Amino acid sequence: MFSCNTSTSGHSTFLLTGFPGLEASHYWVSIPINLICVFSILGNGIILLLICMDPALREPMYIFLSMLAASDLGLCASTFPTMMWLFWLGARELPFDLCAAQMFFIHAFTYVESGVLLAMAFDRFVAIREPLHYATILTHSAMAKVGAAILVRAVLLNLPGPILLRHLLFPQISVLSHCYCLHCDLVGLACSDTQINSLVGLVSIIFSLGLDSSLIVLSYALILQTVLGIASPGEQLKALNTCVSHLCVVLIFYLPKLGLSVLHRVEKHSYPALAVLMANLHFLVPPIMNPIVYCIKSKKIRQSLLKHFQHKRVDVF
Fold first, then answer.
1. Where would a tag sit more exposed on the chain, N or C end, judged by fewer CB atoms within 10 A?
2. CA 57 from centroid of its chain's CA atoms
3. What CATH number corresponds to the domain at position 26?
4. Is 231 exposed, middle or buried (0-12, 13-18, 19+ CB in 10 A)?
5. Is residue 2 in a domain?
6. CA-to-CA distance for 270 and 283, rounded, in angstroms?
7. CA dihedral defined by 311, 71, 178, 91, rounded to 10 degrees?
8. Residue among 43, 38, 34, 37 nearest 291 (CA)
9. For residue 165, is it within any domain?
10. Does this model's pTM top 0.90?
11. For residue 82, which of 68, 101, 69 has the smallest C-alpha distance?
12. What's the rounded mean pLDDT across residues 289-314?
């Protein structure tokens, strides 16, 4: 920890942290991270292209899926550069402005993804509860408004963070806990009073991840209530099967965050490498797993992918 005796506002340098005890192996650590980055961009890019090009995928569920893929690409673009900078080039220094910008985009895209998952939960609820009115409720206009609201909320909730951070004093050099910048990490390194910053961060989390996760649970409780009211066991299973992909994606998004939160409060100092690994995985796993889950579970996406692949083969021959 560096001294606060030479603290400054807005001109500090932050040092990225890799895996404690594995500094000599960072080059090798970068190889799987590079592969995850490439496959995440390819997977989400393909999903976006398929939904844009195939008229059969213009249904609300797939339009929300395209929003999810776009948010995953944004999250990749926000986190992977500093990971590569550290693990591949061995560069640790990050100026304040770049760190604050990265923090804003990481949290914004995380909140966008959380909001899209809530919208997808509502989509499944309407599809099962009101199947006859599904097309009239989830129109293209309604989905555009939902997407805009999710984006505006993410920006408004995260905008105060970087602005307030500029008024805090930091040591000339500060060591971050991760290989990217997060609001809670920066607030913890400040030398001045951070009560307002902590309160803003807490309110931001409550009105994004907290609210979204609660409403997702409520949506599935209502879905379960509706499904149990269906007389035929076969129809019950069919209805629940339409939610499997979304449930998997929700668990992939929220469980690593829950595990990291528990680890930070229980054994963070006993297993620092494990804490860093979990911190990296909770940003690395969703972007690469979401396309895989939907490609495995969605017949329409598989058919669209196969159709475009066959067209490409015909063109080549």
1. C
2. 23
3. 1.20.1070.10
4. exposed
5. no
6. 22
7. 60
8. 43
9. yes
10. yes
11. 101
12. 82
